[in-house]
Specification:
By secondary structure, the chain is an all-alpha fold. The chain has two domains: 203 residues, no CATH class; 142 residues, no CATH class. Helix content is 71%, strand content 0%. The protein is built from 19 helices and no strands. Helix 4 runs antiparallel to helix 17 and helix 12 crosses helix 13. The two termini are 16 Å apart. The C terminus is likely disordered.
């Protein structure tokens, strides 16, 4: 029986370490990996008689998913039975969070190894993107897709988002490897920063690059151990950015258009929400609103159809058509913002439940960082993971959908990792 327990735990750990790689392989592999992790995790908990602790924040998270299911059921005539059934299966994200949390509390998984895997993956991906940008083909021979630098993702322009989302984890992995050796650490960190920053710059995700670059500046200001590396990386990177902006047509078009969109978005005014504006005012606003602003405005209009419980899973793609005749509106597959998506699909009630969960998790993590139970290195890593979580919560950035396989798995696993080194918070009992 002991051998069986150890074998199960080993497979569960491998499944977690495989998450960064499965996200590169595609949604099918991600789903298979989640199923394996959940089934083996449940089996391991039953064999070991490990109880899953029910606390206030976990109840709030469950109630959020319950509201999503209830809203999808009430709106099934519009969104379809398929999306209602899919809303039930989204409980996999709740269970994924609970299982990872339980394994961390019981000291059954080693997240340090996960961070090292992220370091290897992000380094490979950054190099792959740079090779494709400079030579027209990546390491596997893939060419840019429709003019976009996609690297190993081939037909999906998500490489930049991937780099940004696992950057903190890979940085934690680098700390774990090189923290005692200052000499090697300096040059290794500098090289990693340069590769990731430049890889993000050439990838076709401008918002992700902006977030990552702001994160680099934040780290330089508040994390002394990275300051020299980051300053040197920025000094090297900025002239390279400027050179390619001036001399590479695709880069110039991409970032010149991006700057124009930021200027346009800064002109987005609350008065746009006032439907009583004159036709002249509306026409003027229409000229300066970018597509994201139009989607956000359409989401707001659609959200007002059911403020309390929302309109159900993936409802925006169906409901937005009702507003296309109005000015400054636009349809899309999702609202492109986590906060708006939650409000639209689950209403204020669902938004309150997930907000309680988020604030509770952040508060407990701050207390852990201040405690004396963690080493200085563990506190640094935990603060970095919390920073990653806060970046995901930032309300003014465009995002993917909270409920898709690829984005949802990465997001909910990242949220679960905020419980890093949280073994002493709750005592689990075994029967």
């Amino acid at each position: 029986m002991l051998l069986k327990k150890n074998f199960l735990l080993s497979i569960i750990e491998i499944s977690i370490y495989f998450f960064p790689i499965s996200l590169i392989a595609g949604s099918l592999v991600v789903n298979l990996n989640i199923i394996i992790f959940l089934l083996l995790g449940l089996t391991y908990f039953i064999i070991n008689r490990i109880k899953v602790h029910i606390n206030f924040s976990n109840i709030s998270l469950f109630l959020f998913f319950f509201v999503l299911i209830a809203s999808s059921f009430l709106n099934k005539d519009q969104i379809g039975i398929y999306n209602f059934i899919k809303s039930i299966f989204l409980l996999k994200f709740f269970i994924l969070y609970i299982f990872i949390e339980t394994l961390i509390y019981n000291k059954k998984i080693n997240l340090n190894f996960f961070f090292k895997v992220c370091l290897f993956v992000i380094t490979f991906l950054a190099i792959d993107l740079i090779v494709q940008f400079l030579f027209g083909k990546n390491i596997l021979g893939y060419e840019p897709w429709e003019g976009r630098i996609t690297g190993i993702f081939e037909h999906e322009a998500i490489a930049g988002a991937y780099l940004q989302k696992i950057f903190i984890f890979s940085l934690s992995g680098a700390l774990l490897i090189f923290f005692p050796n200052k000499g090697k650490k300096f040059w290794f960190f500098t090289l990693i920063f340069i590769l990731v920053i430049f890889g993000s710059f050439v990838a076709s995700n401008r918002i992700s690059f902006l977030i990552l670059f702001c994160l680099v500046i934040f780290l330089a200001i508040f994390y002394k151990m990275f300051r020299k590396n980051l300053i040197l990386s920025i000094i090297i990177a900025i002239p390279v950015f400027f050179y390619y902006y001036q001399n590479d047509i695709q880069t110039n078009i991409k970032y010149k258009g991006f700057v124009n969109k930021i200027v346009q978005f800064s002109n987005f005014d609350k008065s746009t929400l006032n439907e009583k504006q004159s036709i002249t005012e509306n026409s003027s606003k229409k000229k300066i609103l970018n597509n994201h602003a139009k989607i956000y405005l359409t989401t707001y209009k659609s959200f007002k159809d059911n403020i309390l419980l929302g309109l159900g899973l993936k409802s925006f793609r169906y409901n937005c058509n009702s507003y296309l005749k109005e000015q400054n509106t636009l349809c899309s597959t999702h609202p492109h913002n986590y906060h708006l998506e939650v409000l639209h699909d689950t209403g204020i009630i669902g938004f309150i439940f997930i907000s309680i969960f988020a604030f509770s998790l952040v508060g407990k993590t701050f207390l852990r960082i201040k405690s004396k139970n963690l080493t200085s290195l563990e506190k640094i890593i935990l603060s970095l993971i919390l920073l990653n979580f806060l970046i995901e919560l930032f309300p003014l950035k465009s995002t993917g959908s909270l409920f898709t396989t690829w984005n949802g798995t990465l997001l909910w696993a990242s949220i679960a990792f905020v419980n890093y080194k949280n073994e002493n918070d709750i005592q689990y009992s075994k029967k």
